Prior knowledge:
This protein is α+β, with helices and mostly antiparallel strands. It is built from 9 helices and 11 strands.
Amino acid sequence: MEGLMVGIPLGCLLGFIAWFLVRYLVAGIFTVNQNERAVKTSFGRAQRVGVATTAEDPISVSLNPEQKQRYNCPQVGVIQPGGPYFKWPWEKVYKVSIATETVNMAYDPMAPTANTGGTILEAVTKDQLNTGLTGQIRFKVSERNLYAYLFGVKYPIAHIMGYFVSVLRERIANFEAPAAADGTPAVQTGISINDLRKNLRDINEHMDRECASSAARYGIQLEASLITSIDPPPEVESALAAINTAHNQVSSDISLAQASADQKIVQSRRAVEIETLKAQAEVEPLTLLAYQLAELKTNGGQDALAAYLRNVRLGLYAQANRVVLEVKG
């Protein structure tokens, strides 16, 4: 009976020790995959890298001083791929995938059914035309600002999508066609959607510049945005097509008229050049003759010039049928 009483506490003690080793020591071993980064917290506080903050990091270069103060996050220690690593029971590990992801720009993580099931994003142009935009954005978690992604906001993907959509809608609402390369203003058609369609590349580049600060804001880096099409509502598409056809016809007529005018200008310039060359051809012999007469007078004297004139006059007499002479009284 005494052996049984001694055996029960000893078994419980051994069982507790085995449970503790499995629960807090063996389970504390972890690894990090190649496409992952990890951050460790101790009693809920992430391990810092000294007193360094993101305001001192190059990712904050696109922020103004007020924004740097608002989005100033501490830099945390990032656990690189590999392992095994160990954590104590009071520590917690947050793993984050840094793989690049591509989503439709109309995707709303808080309401998947919004924007026609996440396929078409609506925006209003400066002439109050409701348009539908389609395209994709490519993003990944920024390794240099994991604090903002893990602890700064509750739903970072929702924040970054909302930020992108707000910037895009503001650009669509205030877009004006850029000036030509020579500095002349762009031709205004009165329909902003035409300008938007013609300048999709400029819009995409503008979005890349405006979203360069997303890594410093929310810990997500927007790598690229690609707007593939901008379409008007179905009820105005036929009217817009007719207007575009008329505009194209007018543009064609203007181009033909300008080409004809340019051709006439070139022809006029050529005619002036031809007449100028003819005049020069007629003047040149007279100029040379005057030069020769001057040389003859200088080198041969007055008698030589008189003899030259007499010989020239005799040649003219030989070619003439009748000669009229003036007789001095």
